[in-house]
Amino acid sequence: MEFIKHILWATDYSDESQEALLYAALFAKTFGARLSALHVVPDFSPVFYESLPAIEAELTGRLEEATASAKARIKEISASHGITFDSVLVRKGSPAKAICEAANTDKADLIVIGPAGASASGRTAIGSVANQVLRSSLVPVLVTKKRKGGQAIRKILVPTDFSGREEAERDWAWKLAKGFKGSLGFLYVMELFGHDFRLTDELFKAVLEKLKARRAKEHEDVAITEDVYKAHSAAAGIVDYASIHHYDMIVMSTHVGRVARFLLGSTTEKVIAESPVPVFAIPPGKE
User: Fold this and answer.
1) pLDDT tens-digit map of 88-146
2) Are 82 and 22 in contact (CB under 8 A)?
3) Domains identified in the chain and CATH numbers
4) Rounded distance, CA 269 to CA 134, Å?
5) Under a CB-based contact definition with an 8 Å cutoff, are residues 109 and 6 in contact?
6) pTM of the predicted model, to two decimals?
7) What is the DSSP string of 210-258?
8) DSSP-assigned beta bridge partners for residue 252
């Protein structure tokens, strides 16, 4: 399995990012991928330098100290968890922008990050950094959650609305299930208000026939199930279903076709904020 070759773990040293590291290490081990660590330190605007040239040297020195401190801190984390990093990256500037740029420059296939900055309840919003990374990243982003059962991934949930763009989503989910030797569950949430009731049996039949054909072709015994769940909203239905049926990860796109309820900032963002399990978010056009 080489479709994930390089994983970038972004850390702010929080408990959430420590949990994200365990998932990053699990993915790296499962798929034989390189694992890099990244911390972003503050940058001081050149405009600030120009307005106060007398302290430019001092600020530059502080930045160098912060960079050295970051590398030392990541080295300590590596030792304490017994996790070896292929490389340790320290960037300066806006965290979200620096994370996405580092992923592009270093050709990462996956960014792993915690939901930094979540609200006190932890169930109403994700942090601004994670949010911006999701909106800007050109590669998939795994937003992790702390779980009592640990980091094992055996059951993967794939929400669907049967749009054509979901082929890429299903492809990623299939490869992930193969790598983790897990099962796939496809879920259609039938909203009680605001959407037409679709002929889900026929739609599921078409999807399952493709997946079963692939299973036979690749000689992989990936267990597949499908279900329809009624809820007041797509996000609530996905989150509730994942919790009730003990799924370990949700795979969904950050943007799916023209369906407004699946736009980032709506269903996807709500699922990531409220989900009890990690969400593997796939950006538009990533196949």
Assistant:
1) 999 888 899 999 999 999 999 999 999 874 333 344 456 778 888 988 999 999 999 87
2) no
3) 6-143 (3.40.50.620), 155-282 (3.40.50.620)
4) 9
5) yes
6) 0.83
7) HHHHHHHHHT----EEEEEEEESSHHHHHHHHHHHTT-SEEEEES--TT
8) 281
